[in-house]
Amino acid sequence: MYCKNYDTTIHFEIMVRLAKAFYSDDFESAVDRIPQEMRPRTQKSSRCCIYRDRAIIKYRCMATLGFAIEAEENELKPLSAYAREALGRDRLRGNMITFIDEACNGCVRTHYEATSACRGCLAEACVQHCPKDAVRVENGRSVIDPDLCIKCGKCMDACPYHAIVYIPIPCEESCPTGAISKDACGKQAIDYEKCIFCGKCMAACPFTAVLERSQMVDVLSGLKTKRQMVAMIAPAIAGEFNGTMLQLAAALRSLGFTDVVEVAAGADITARSEADEFIERMEHGAPFMTTSCCPAYTELVSKHIPELAPYVSDTRTPMHYTAQMVKERDETACTVFVGPCVAKRREGTNDELVDYVVTFQEIEAMFQARGIVISECEEGSFGMVGGREGRSFPVSGGVTAGIKSMINARAEILRPTIVDGLNRKTLKELKNFAKKGAPGNFVEVMGCEGGCVAGPATIVPARKATKRCTEYALSSPSALAHEGAGD
Q1: pLDDT tens per residue across span 28-47
Q2: pLDDT tens, 115-139?
Q3: What is the pLDDT along the chain (487 residues), one digit of tens a residue?
Q4: CB 440: neighbour CB atoms within 10 A?
Q5: What are the E-state strand segments in 321-461?
Q6: How far apart are CA 217 and CA 435, in angstroms?
Q7: Is 288 helix (H, G, I), strand (E, B) or coil?
Q8: DSSP summary character for residue 486
Q9: How many degrees, rounded to 5, is the angle at CA 349 between CA 22 and CA 253?
């Protein structure tokens, strides 16, 4: 999620406070005090009362400690108990998204509504165009009966004054698969059988009622015990922080990471592998091939478009290949992926080579808790670096550019199509590809519009991040140069 001033939001403040609590003399007691410290009795509440504010802060703390809120029923269980459990677990399991019903503003059901702009015109176009007689005129104004309305929108389209508006529920509207909706009791619920963990509901909710279950405390514990912790930074990170990439490497080492590697190195492997796979598939007469880098997309295919599965590349993701290289160097190393994505958290729990996944937002919270300013750090170094191809991956079209570069002399056979973001429209397009074929023979699918630079756990605007990432990639040597040198 990008919020203009994300570092001033309540959830980011909770991340920072939890990180500071971890570094304090008594983590459990410090965590217990967070709701009261954030909402003292002398402060005006942001909701109905100070006690509801504190309850919601407690739930946010639970999610940041890695717990699913809807699964917890013991209201009397203190945060210190959750903190203790978080310190004792070996790995986070289960679904990575959780929902705070109390934080939701009680959105009404999605509906159409006649506003005060209605002029009560004699034509009554809204009434005439409604197929279910759900619109009537009362006291010179249009009224829509929610029990009869089928939400077709014909009344809105017909109104000459644009007096009828569509009122959505943001989280529901953003979900491409219909995985989040109100249950029989009027509460929002997530259907994990449909969820592809794209994080769009998180980004859309103006109350931050949809949250990730964080692994930040797990990573902090590893750093504190001096384990061989290796930060694997996603290519999209080049657009997120002030300072150079080498200063960022130094800052991560200051947190306690023993090594910092670019996932762009794994992306170079993905680009090479997908290029070889693409050529092989085309030689065997395949109509097209799609990418496999975005776990939200592969989850979508698995759950909603299984007929598209034969066309999805078998190549593993950059995160996997990077973790593999790290483990080959040191099998005792603890791999920590740092990225912008909820789906990567899901992928990480299913990949035996990836130990933890944290987001850009969580890393920024850890920096703030330790007082680390990246732009003030001396430049450090990377244990692994990527080439131009891998560093281009986080921007829409970047994967295609990487494949084209790897194909090189045979690049003319590549006829790419880019699906820029998963939504209900592109979901239909992908289903159509499975039935009738794609408009090209190589389909790049990005879960987020604009690419990973627009992921739900980013910090800066996608446009700014795109510019930074593109400049970083263009200033980098091609991975082919390393291959030519025998690396």
Answers
A1: 999 999 999 999 988 877 77
A2: 999 998 988 999 999 999 999 999 8
A3: 334 444 448 889 999 999 999 999 999 999 999 999 999 988 877 777 888 889 999 999 999 999 998 766 667 899 999 999 999 998 888 888 998 887 776 666 778 999 999 998 988 999 999 999 999 999 889 999 988 999 899 999 999 999 999 988 888 889 999 998 877 666 778 899 999 999 999 888 888 888 999 999 999 999 998 889 999 999 999 999 999 999 999 999 999 999 999 999 999 999 999 999 999 999 999 999 999 899 999 999 999 999 999 999 999 999 999 999 999 999 999 999 999 998 999 999 999 999 999 999 999 999 999 999 999 999 999 999 999 999 999 999 999 999 999 998 677 899 999 999 999 999 999 999 999 999 999 999 999 999 999 999 999 999 999 999 999 999 999 988 655 444 4
A4: 16
A5: 334-339, 356-359, 416-420, 442-446
A6: 45
A7: coil
A8: T
A9: 45
Instruction: Quote the CA–CA distance of 329 and 452 in Å, as a whole number.
Output: 28
Q: What would the two tokens of residue 370 be?
A: 């330790």
Do 111-167 and 218-484 have matching folds?
no
Distance CA 312, CA 116 (A): 50
The Cα–Cα gap between 460 and 255 comes to 22
- In whole angstroms, how far apart are CA 141 and each of 54, 135, 172, 297? 43, 10, 29, 46
Distance CA 186, CA 255 (A): 44
The CA–CA distances, whole Å, from 127 to 114, 115, 154 equal 12, 15, 10
Q: Is residue 197 left, alpha or beta, with left meaning phi > 0 and alpha meaning psi from -120 to 50? A: left
The shares of helix, strand and coil residues in the chain, as percent rounded to the nearest 5, are 45, 15, 40
Q: How far is the C-alpha of 294 from the C-alpha of 351, rounded, in Å? A: 14
Name the nearest CA neighbour of 271 among 328, 339, 317, 325.
317
Cα gap 382→221, rounded to integer Å: 23
| CATH class of the 218-484 domain in this structure | alpha beta
Q: How many helices (H) and strands (E) does the chain have?
A: 21, 15
**Nearest C-alpha neighbor of 372 from the set 460, 469, 236, 249:** 249
What's this model's pTM, rounded to 2 decimal places? 0.89
Cα–Cα distance for residue pair 214/220, rounded to 1 Å: 11
Specify the CATH number for 111-167; select among 3.40.50.300, 3.30.70.20, 3.90.1150.10, 3.40.190.10. Answer: 3.30.70.20
**Annotated domain spans of the chain:** 6-89, 111-167, 218-484
Structure tokens belonging to residue 55: 């309850």
DSSP one-letter code for 32:
H
Three-state DSSP class for residue 204 = helix
Tokens of 310: 């034969």
